[in-house]
């Protein structure tokens, strides 16, 4: 599929599509049109208010969850720098993102590459797209170029979803609902609980939750659920 064809697929996917269904459709288009074994999208990727929009399968969900828990990884770097970030050498990756690499490789040792692309909304990066692949050596250069063009089209297609996110009072209506809830309202409530209980600010409370998650081998979503159950 040529780059222009994939971009057209992205544009067609959201014609007459309700905003709440846009992320899921876009994930499907990228997963189908690229040699991708997992696709994720997130907004506010490098902030505590991170919001997962979609994950194409369990591998993609794990990719999001590990980065969300340890607050490092290719998509966070892409969102911070506004530049594409490509992880194909896992030894180098282990030096740059040791917690992410250890956590994700334990779950999916067969993944050969993770490619992260910033989502530009005008002059601002408000999110990132991750593409994971089992292709040896990761995506080839021409496929990366094709993916980058498609992600630019995705950013435009996500504008209605971005507005819906900003207007939503509590739970954004994305799927899977339990993971999305943990990435959004539940986490913020849990941070408040920990901050009050431990008499610390919210940044330190979030750091403590991440440390508990990493130390126990749980995800931040699981730690959040535990806190809210007590």
From TrEMBL:
InterPro entries for this protein: GAF-like_dom_sf (IPR029016)
SUPFAM superfamilies, per the entry: GAF domain-like (SSF55781)
Superkingdom of origin: Bacteria
The protein, known as: ANTAR domain-containing protein
């Amino acid at each position: 599929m040529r780059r222009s064809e994939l971009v057209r697929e992205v544009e067609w996917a959201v014609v007459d599509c309700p905003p709440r269904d846009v992320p899921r459709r876009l994930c499907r288009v990228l997963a189908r049109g690229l040699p991708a074994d997992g696709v994720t999208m997130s907004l506010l990727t490098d902030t505590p208010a991170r919001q997962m929009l979609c994950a194409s399968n369990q591998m993609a969900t794990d990719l999001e969850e590990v980065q969300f828990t340890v607050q490092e990884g290719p998509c966070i770097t892409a969102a911070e720098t506004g530049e594409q970030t490509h992880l194909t050498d896992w030894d180098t990756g282990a030096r740059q993102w040791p917690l992410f690499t250890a956590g994700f490789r334990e779950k999916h040792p067969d993944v050969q590459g993770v490619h992260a692309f910033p989502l530009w909304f005008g002059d601002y990066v408000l999110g990132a797209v991750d593409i994971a692949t089992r292709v040896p050596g990761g995506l080839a250069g021409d496929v990366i170029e094709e993916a980058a063009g498609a992600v630019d089209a995705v950013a435009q297609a996500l504008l209605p979803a971005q507005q819906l996110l900003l207007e939503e009072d509590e739970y954004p209506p994305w799927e899977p609902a339990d993971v999305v809830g943990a990435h959004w309202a539940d986490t913020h409530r849990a941070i408040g609980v920990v901050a009050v209980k431990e008499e610390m600010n919210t940044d330190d409370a979030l750091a403590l939750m991440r440390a508990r998650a990493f130390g126990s081998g749980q995800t931040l979503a699981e730690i959040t659920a535990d806190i809210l159950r007590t």
